[in-house]
Amino acid sequence: MYRYIVKRLLLAVPTLVGAAALVFVLMRLIPGDICVIRLGSGGAHVDPASVEACRLQLGLNNPMIVQFLDFLWSYITLDFGTSMWSGHPVTHEIAARLPVSLQIALMATVIAILIAIPLGTISALRENTWLDHIVRMVAIAGIATPSFWLGIMSLVLVLDITYLATGKPWMPPIDYVPFWQDPIRNLSMVLLPAITVGYRYSAVTMRMTRSAMLEVLREDYIRTARSKGLLEQIIVNRHALKNALLPVVTLIGIEFAFLIGGLVVTEQVFNLNGIGRLFVQAVQNQDNVLTQALVMLVVVIFVVTNLVVDLLYAWLDPRIRFS
Amino acid sequence: MSLRTGLWAAGLGLAAAIAAGSAGAQTPKRGGTLTYMISADASPSFDGHRETTFATVHAVAPYYSVLIRVPPDNPASTTEFVCDLCTEMPKPTDGGKTYAFKIRPDVKWHDGSKLTAKDVLASWNKIVFPPQGITSARVSYYSMVEKIEAPDDSTVVFRLKYPSAAFIPALADPFTWIYKKETLDKDPHWYEKNIMGSGPFKFVSYEIGQSIKGVRNPDYYHKGQPYLDAIEGIFAAKQSVRVDAIRGDRAAIEFRGMPPSARDELVKEAGKEIVVQDSDWNCGNIITANHKKKPFDDVRVRRALALAVDQWKGAPALSKIAIVRSVGGIVFPGSPLAATKEELQQMVGYWPDIEKARAEARRLLKEAGAENLKFELINRNVDQPYMLYSEDLADRRVEEDRRDRRAEGGADRSLVPGDARRHLRRGGRCELPERGQSRPRYQQVSAADGLSRELRRL
Question: Closest to A163 (Cβ–Cβ): which among B6, B133, B269?
Answer without folding.
Answer: B269
